[in-house]
Amino acid sequence: MDTLCGTVGVAARNFLSRKHLLYIGGRFVASAMGRTFTTDDPSTGGHLTEIAYAGPDDVAAAVTAARAALDGPWSRLSAADRGLIIARLADLIDRNGDELAELEALDGGKPITMTRALDVPAAAAQFRYFSGWPARIEGETIPVAVPNTLCYTRKEPVGVCAQIIPWNFSLLMSAWKVGAALAAGCTVVLKPAEQTPLTALRLAELIDEAGFPAGTVNVLTGDGETGAALVDHPGVDKIVFTGSTSVGREIGAKAGAQLKRVTLELGGKSANIILPDADLDAAIAGSYNGIFFNTGQACNAASRLFVHQSVYDEVIEGLAARAKSAQVGPALDPATECGPVISAEQYRRVRGYIQDGVAAGATLTSGDLPEPVPHGGYFIRPTLFTDVSPDMRICREEIFGPVLVVAPFDSIDDAVRMANDTDYGLAAGAWTQNLSNAHTLAARLQAGSVYLNTWAPGDPAAPFGGVKASGVGREMGRAGLDAYLEPKTVWATLA
Description:
40% of the residues lie in helices and 19% in strands. With 495 residues, it is α/β, with parallel strands linked by helices. Strands 14-15-16-13-12-17-18 form a seven-stranded mixed sheet, with helices on both faces. A six-stranded mixed sheet has the order 9-8-7-10-11-19, with helices on both faces. The chain is globular and about 75 Å long. It starts with 9 loop residues before the first helix and ends with a strand.
């Protein structure tokens, strides 16, 4: 283990010192190939620990274990008992919250204040919410026209689910996906991103401690090849993926060819609109947090801001002042507001976009062009571009970093046109004190979520997902549960 940037507690340090194995069929096992890889600390660039690498044989073993649990002990539990064991997992997450928060901060570069306040409590809340669903899944009796006939529906689990999660919210995305699948009665093979495997592996230990039947949840660590093997495996009934649109298209094509169920939560280039009657202090603060939260590494980041001409200068001044004073630093420092981006690769990607924006003629109002090679951690200051045009790459492509582009508009029609001029449709927002304008915009903006006088609040009961190139299907809430259920229609002649 290389030098840690900051101090971690005993539990997290002990976890890092352990041998990190795959979790298959209720046992922690080495990779069949004996292969490992390293996970790094984005705050220092140093290695944290070695992780087992799952190859095709491990994928096959995990899918087999998940199928056995689906056909056996997991399906034989009553709905009430399934809910109780899911709730027990939520309690264990709460009980181990400090350790999980430190591991998430170390592995992902997210400020420790954020992982403590958001990621860990929200993950527990997801499991607690979905623990209430198993005993509430009901079919319907249908009054058909056929005489002397009973017709009803059963809602049954889709089956074995491959769940591939991103690196920006590793613990929380695991909870989103695993909680809903378990509530529906499915079994799971979970694959975390190779950049952030630690909290998924710690979650596997808590799943084991909670007493889930062997094979109900399996955790495989690896890279894109591991994920591809999961997608291709004929024993997988449903694929759930959060990540880039390009990879999502590949998964969608494969799933279509195999007629597998799929939920895809993909990229975004979300538009945020400030009308002239907005509470400007709230709008500036909300717009700043909407993009620079998690160092811009959020699929629903408010990365395009459209401001009415009459308040444009005031908004730019307020955003620039906040960006220039932002505390950028290592994840474990309680004073840090913006941590590093996830990796050297992501650092180069974001730097390339900043360089491209400057070359295209946009004005760098705050922030700077980072050094070609990072020294230590992968730090990029909050960056604000003005004098942009809609054809610029920084305005059209998902950057996934702390980069905001701002443009003025004259009318609501102009704002809607510019906001919808994108391949993506994950989120959009508007700031206004006019109730009619707020709900008119909510109807006209092409996005899966619309935020009015706020940005990206969340709740396990509220569905989340996108339209257009931002994905297929929804997660969380009743819609997220239904995505893991198959209705079966039963016909019975009574006489």
